[in-house]
Amino acid sequence: MANVPEEPPTFKPSPQPPTPWVWRLEDAAGAVVEITGDLAGQTFSSQADAESWVGEFYAELAAEGVDAVTLFEAEREVYGPMSLHA
Q1: For 23-76, how does the pLDDT look when each residue is reduced to its tens digit (9 = 90+)?
Q2: What whole-number distance in Å separates Cα of residue 44 and Cα of residue 64?
Q3: 2 phi, psi to nearest 5 deg
Q4: Which of 15, 27, 35, 72 has its CA 20 to 30 A from that of 7?
Q5: Through-space distance between the first and last CA atoms of the chain, rounded to whole angstroms
């Protein structure tokens, strides 16, 4: 009978709650813009989802008075402000 090592325990990372990604919507002076409707209060499960959303809805956001956006992962500022104008 061969001497076979035991199988290592399966590595399972501890479950972590998803980190919300959010955009802070800003006017030209940098003040927060509060919007209503379907675009208000959006949170995302990933940076890619957040960036896709702003890419899809930037014209509607600009029509609501948003001049720039800043991306946050929970409380950490990732980047911005990023202008919504060409």
Answers
A1: 999 999 999 999 999 999 999 999 999 999 999 999 999 999 999 999 999 999
A2: 20
A3: -75, 150
A4: 15
A5: 73
